[in-house]
């Protein structure tokens, strides 16, 4: 991030030397002696009863060692990992959790659900064996749309969840909100589609499971966003105590929220490893990633905004219907309910808020957290409501925002939802910088110039506040251990997947201890390291929680070193102070540094400077103001992002270049949702129509040609680093900013509503219809 100046020279991330040289170790790179290979037979239909499964042809195939079915996983007593929702819904009703067999039994409920697992001496032999299995199905009618699933007479997915409604959640003050709407001078209403997304990390799902009969323990190698997250899933499904698992993950090729759960394939491998007494390895294909990785977004977002005669916001009301898929992921129900309530008013003073979110079960792949984890839905809906309200009332778009933003002196700001307080921020400052750096005031000249070239040009703004940090664990812990030469190892439950943790976490500890960062190494989610409380890398919490715990651990090292340093300096401990990385006795020139002191104390076990620190998990609320400027070719419907400005408040910035990478990557993922990413199911058959890169759009480097990133930091008082988190910010701002820009470009043609994604075909059809005077809203169906 910059203040309009070039970023300082950067030598590169510590992990880059290994990864660029091809020396990374991802899940598929792990191998164990005597390992067998697995392949999964998956359902070829969306909804059907399983009449029979004949595994004999597979068992007769060359190289096949065993076949597991739903009967095997049921006999093992496998259950469903409990979702993270523990709070009640509307009327006190609890979340209804559908049972999911690790391998399908009696019925399949989405295309490519796992039906059987074949284990063989090679991956190819396992795949051949899976293809030889004969399954007889009795087809049932599918339902893939969330609203259709809740309609009377819809096909029922689970007998114990009538009407396919697994959770009905409400929040806010309904009576106060209703009263505010009754008194409003103007009400803006919108229903938007948040299109279903496929995460598609570079690294497909994979696992290697090995069982040690002598100790009754398992080693599980798999990509994960943190060992604690994977353990929660493994123990929740298998019932095996967490201490019986050692989870290994060195490098993770992308995560985005969908690498936090323990997928059913991993649990099947755990069972097979014990049953057969040999390690079981499985690496999914890209096709399997499309159909069986949890998907993101997939919600119908209804919203209303009430304004008085002066354009002041009086109330906002939400009505969401969320597509949860056929089963529930662990985080899915949480991010589509409570996470939204944390920032439902966005960056605005809105006195009254009420929302109702209904989670529907459908014959589709389950949905989960995906970069932003519900935040882009809130920001998209609120900013589209504000933009539309400005058009409808005739108030300038920027001015309407100015009138309603939370002022800097109102922080900490108690939101209308009692449980959530925004810790710090300056929304008006963010907006003014975004207006300045985007050259908003001279935009009309650029629009006119584009028109002379036959193009449609638009500009859009989005301002937001979003939650980061927190978690289910009450605290986060980190530990520091020293070796014989005074080097330090830092242990945390982080799950790095490209963010640069190996670089920035040692820098944090080095800053406190005054050591050279190169003498400090990160051990993230090390199964052989000290047992720590906390969670993995989710919800932009790494710097806040893991980094904060490291600061406390480093301070504990300094405290422990005071007595040791006094001995070395031949001074009274009360006279020893620690300054700029060295211990000194007052009034004397002699000093000793932490690394030197650690080396002198080597040999003792444990090392006397070894320390552990912890931090209470508190949320922070980063914010931002983003401006996108686009150009639309009316002859083709192609959209180009001509300019993009992001001004973000991520609290104190520890490493600008790494943060820029996070913001830039998040923006591109947000633009992917706006410009083309869309996971589509056929309504009649439930078949996935976008199951490969031939059909599914992915943003490329050319999608964002001119991105200018600035920071406007207001440190958080809720953690020792003052950090707020930046992993979700780019996506949270990009979706509404780009959507507003495209609609601004199309507005002169009379097009003011268009569902995402804005593909060339969809935009071209809207333009053609508008020119003929027959414009209708182009839906996402």
The amount of helix comes to 25-40%
First-to-last CA distance? 39 Å
- Using only CA atoms, what is the Rg? 27 Å
Question: Average pLDDT, to the nearest integer?
Answer: 94
- Strand proportion, as a percent range, falls in 15-25%
Number of helices: 21
Helices and strands in order:
Elements: H1 16-20, E1 36-42, E2 48-54, H2 56-59, E3 64-69, H3 70-75, E4 107-108, E5 114-120, H4 123-132, E6 134-139, H5 146-150, E7 165-172, H6 174-183, E8 186-194, E9 197-198, E10 206-212, E11 217-222, H7 227-238, E12 245-248, H8 264-276, E13 280-283, H9 286-292, E14 295-296, E15 299-307, E16 313-323, H10 332-335, H11 338-341, E17 352-360, H12 375-393, H13 397-404, E18 413-414, E19 421-422, H14 427-437, H15 443-452, E20 456-465, E21 468-469, E22 475-482, E23 488-492, H16 501-513, E24 520-524, H17 542-569, E25 576-579, E26 582-585, E27 591-593, H18 594-600, E28 611-616, E29 619-620, E30 623-632, E31 639-649, H19 656-675, E32 707-711, H20 729-746, H21 760-771
Parallel strand pairs: 1-13, 11-12, 16-17, 23-24, 31-32
Antiparallel strand pairs: 1-5, 2-4, 2-6, 3-5, 7-17, 8-15, 9-14, 10-11, 10-13, 15-16, 18-19, 20-30, 21-29, 22-23, 22-28, 25-26, 26-27, 30-31
């Amino acid at each position: 991030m910059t203040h309009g100046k070039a970023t300082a020279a950067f030598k590169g991330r510590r992990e880059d030397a290994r990864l660029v040289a091809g020396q990374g170790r991802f899940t598929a790179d792990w191998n164990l002696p005597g390992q067998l290979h697995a392949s999964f037979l998956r359902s070829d239909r969306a909804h059907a009863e399983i009449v029979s499964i004949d595994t004999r042809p597979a068992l007769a195939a060359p190289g096949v060692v065993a076949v597991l079915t739903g009967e095997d996983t049921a006999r093992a007593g496998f259950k469903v990992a409990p979702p993270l929702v523990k709070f009640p819904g509307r009327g006190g009703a609890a979340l209804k959790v559908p049972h999911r067999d690790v391998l399908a039994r009696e019925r399949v409920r989405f295309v490519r659900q796992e039906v059987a697992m074949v284990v063989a001496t090679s991956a190819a032999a396992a795949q051949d064996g899976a293809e030889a299995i004969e399954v007889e199905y009795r087809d049932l009618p599918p339902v893939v749309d969330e609203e259709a699933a809740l309609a009377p007479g819809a096909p029922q997915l689970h007998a114990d969840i009538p009407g396919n409604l697994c959770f009905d959640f409400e929040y806010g003050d309904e009576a106060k909100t209703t009263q505010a709407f009754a008194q409003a001078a103007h009400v803006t209403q919108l229903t938007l589609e948040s299109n279903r997304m496929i995460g598609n990390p570079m690294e497909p799902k994979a696992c290697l499971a090995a069982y040690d009969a002598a100790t009754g323990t398992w080693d599980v190698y798999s990509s994960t966003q943190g060992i604690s997250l994977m353990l929660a899933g493994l123990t929740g499904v298998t019932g095996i105590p967490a201490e019986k698992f050692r989870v290994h993950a060195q490098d993770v090729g992308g995560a985005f929220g969908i690498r936090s759960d323990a997928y059913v394939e991993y649990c099947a491998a755990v069972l097979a490893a014990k049953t057969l007494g040999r390690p079981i390895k499985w690496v999914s294909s890209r096709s399997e990633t499309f159909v069986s990785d949890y998907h993101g977004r997939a919600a119908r977002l209804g919203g209303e905004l009430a304004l008085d005669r002066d354009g002041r916001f009086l109330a906002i009301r939400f009505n969401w219907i969320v597509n949860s898929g056929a089963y529930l992921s662990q985080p899915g129900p949480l991010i589509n309910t409570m996470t939204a309530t944390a920032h439902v008013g966005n960056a605005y003073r809105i006195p009254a808020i009420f929302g109702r979110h209904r989670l529907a079960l459908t014959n589709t792949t389950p949905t989960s957290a995906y970069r932003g984890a519900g935040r882009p839905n809130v920001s998209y809906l609120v900013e589209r409501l504000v933009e539309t309200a400005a058009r409808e009332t005739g108030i300038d778009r920027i001015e309407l925002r100015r009138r309603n933003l939370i002022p800097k002196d109102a922080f900490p700001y108690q939101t209308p939802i009692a449980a959530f307080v925004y810790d710090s921020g300056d929304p008006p400052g963010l907006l003014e910088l975004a207006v300045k750096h985007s050259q908003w005031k001279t935009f009309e000249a650029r629009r006119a110039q584009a028109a002379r070239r036959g193009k449609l040009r638009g500009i859009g703004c989005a301002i937001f506040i979003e939650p980061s940090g927190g978690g289910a664990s009450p605290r986060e812990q980190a530990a520091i251990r020293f070796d014989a030469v005074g080097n330090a190892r830092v242990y945390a439950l982080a799950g790095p997947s490209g963010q640069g943790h190996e670089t920035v976490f040692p820098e944090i500890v080095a800053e406190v201890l005054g050591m050279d960062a190169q003498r400090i190494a990160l051990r993230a989610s090390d199964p052989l390291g000290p047992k720590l409380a906390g969670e993995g890398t989710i919800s932009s919490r790494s710097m806040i929680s893991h980094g904060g715990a490291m600061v406390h651990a480093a301070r504990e090292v300094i405290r422990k070193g005071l007595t040791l340093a006094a001995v070395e300096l031949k001074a009274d401990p009360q006279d020893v102070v620690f300054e700029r990385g060295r211990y000194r006795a007052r009034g004397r020139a002699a000093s000793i540094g932490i690394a030197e002191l650690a080396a002198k104390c080597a040999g003792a076990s444990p090392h006397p400077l070894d320390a552990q620190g912890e931090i209470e998990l508190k949320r922070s609320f980063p914010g931002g103001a983003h401006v996108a400027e686009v150009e639309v070719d009316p002859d083709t419907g192609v959209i180009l992002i001509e300019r993009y400005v992001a001004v973000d408040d991520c609290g104190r910035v520890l490493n600008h270049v790494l943060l820029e990478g996070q913001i830039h990557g998040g923006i591109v993922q947000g633009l992917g949702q706006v410009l083309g990413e869309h996971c589509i199911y056929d309504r009649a058959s439930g078949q996935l129509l976008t199951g490969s890169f031939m059909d599914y759009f992915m943003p490329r480097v050319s999608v964002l040609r001119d991105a200018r990133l600035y920071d406007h930091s207001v440190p958080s008082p809720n953690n020792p680093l003052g950090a707020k988190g930046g992993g979700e910010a780019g996506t949270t701002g990009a979706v509404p900013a780009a959507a507003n820009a495209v609609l601004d470009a199309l507005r002169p043609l009379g097009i003011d509503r268009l569902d995402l994604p804005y593909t060339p075909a969809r935009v071209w059809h809207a333009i053609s219809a508008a020119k003929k005077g027959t414009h209708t809203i182009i839906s996402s169906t």
